[in-house]
Amino acid sequence: MPFAIEKVREGSTSRDVYLHNQNSCDNPLGYGWSLEKHAHVSIPLVLRFFISTSVTAVFNAYGTLLVEINPDHPATVSATSNLFRCILAAAGLAALDPLITALSPRWYFAVFTAILLITAQMAYFLQSRGVRWRQNRTGIKTGEEHK
């Protein structure tokens, strides 16, 4: 009988992923504040380190989950994920300079943090609906309906 990989992946790494999700959402606020206040150069660098490690951890965890959910086409899923990530990064960088000029670094990163907080809710959504989506796609029951 197949098992619910979404629950296993989320359950085994959920504390870490949620912690990194929270870090990647909270640290940009401090980063924007430190840029606005012209804080010592070490403060934005340390915050960048934490932002980068958190985003990388979340990306790797969900990239692995995407490949595990789609074992028939892992290269396609990985390429699509990377393409989507790069398109979003390009859009964010294109908006960076005009928005920092129109707002301030602090408010730009506050808006960025709000967007991150909204999209971070997708982790909870995936955990609650991911099994059902895969069942509908593959037609395989996982035994989750008995709980």
TrEMBL record:
It is a multi-pass membrane protein. Keywords: Membrane, Transmembrane, Transmembrane helix, Transport. The chain crosses the membrane at residues 41-62, 107-126. Its main location: membrane. InterPro entries: MFS_trans_sf. It is found in: Membrane. One of its GO terms (molecular function) is transmembrane transporter activity. GO terms for cellular component: plasma membrane. It comes from the Eukaryota. This is MFS general substrate transporter. It comes from Zopfia rhizophila CBS 207.26.
